[in-house]
Amino acid sequence: MKIVQVLATSGGIGGLEQHTFNLVNEMSQQHDVHVLAHPCYAEKFNQNVHFHAVDFSRSRWNLFLLWQLKSLINQIQPDIVHAQAGKAAELISKIRGWLNPVKFVTTVHGTKKNKAIYASGDAIIAVSQALTQGIPAHKAHVVYNGVYPQLALTELQIQQLKSEIYAQHPEMDPSKKIVMCIGRLEPVKNISLLIQAMRGVDANVWIVGDGSLRSSLEAQVQQQNMQHQAAFLGFRSDARDLVQLADTVALSSDREGFPLVMVEALQADKPMASTKVNGVIEWLPQTYLANIGQNGELRQAIQKALSEQAIIDFLPLFSRAKSELTVEAMTEQTLAIYAHLLQNQA
User: Fold this and answer.
1) pLDDT tens digits, residue range 90-116?
2) What is the DSSP string of 133-172?
3) Contact at 8 Å (CB) between 9 and 87?
4) CA distance 22 to 50
5) CB–CB of 340/125 below 8 Å?
6) According to the CATH classification, is domain 2-147+326-345 in 3.40.50.2000?
7) Considering the entire predicted model, what is its pTM?
8) What homologous superfamily does CATH list for 155-324?
């Protein structure tokens, strides 16, 4: 099978980008896979992948961009064109009339009020059940995000990593439990809510990630006199290792598609507390969920997730995540959708 994947973002790596890297690299083990993506992502793909650099920082109305995409895809002559998220879906929709016959697949990664830009796809994949709303039922498929298994750290490695973090934050009590938050410091992640929720919780909170709100969030911690409790670790390439140091993982977002941090937490056997965002509500027990924007409810969920009962409650989910939320499972399900489209064509 010859496949073209289109990733139309242009900088930064979040769940959408990581999903695409994993999916493309895994598919390339079995199929002829081409990826059209911004040159900044070239090093993220393995040697089996045919990488085509496209400047996707240009507008989705840019005629030169549309012409380049049309030319590249017709030159490759794929069986499947798969557009990841809204911009890619809209670009391919605009040029589809000028493409050689090809099956077109789109993936919805986030909450969108208007799903019309995905509708021209022959199949529409949603990364959570909630995201299928507004999609024609006969085209809709749910494929959860998956990650590669993370190697478990040794006890010595865990202690060394903890010592490194606490050496950088000597004001924190290293004997306290750790609540871990991993995400971009941007409005949609609502880290401010998490900081409010941590007031009165007898645990440290490690905030891993960077973004435009970092200075205002650090100011909030100062104003609330929580310097002894909250640490900003910035962007860390070892974020998945850090998860193994947590006692629980917290998510305070206002919107999500299917958060990879949940997948990583469950695969690392870590209970979670979260707001009721897409994806999460399909997996976590109700008592570990808070209504969006409610810091008191999130505080209760975090305290519950730090209890001994949490491990018992989450044990079935840890097992399920290790079998269902993998790159291999995600890839197999996606390839099955492609095969079904091509079989119907024949």
Assistant:
1) 999 999 999 999 999 999 988 766 677
2) TTS-TTTEEE----BPPPPPPPHHHHHHHHHHHHHH-TTS
3) yes
4) 15
5) no
6) yes
7) 0.85
8) Glycogen Phosphorylase B; (3.40.50.2000)
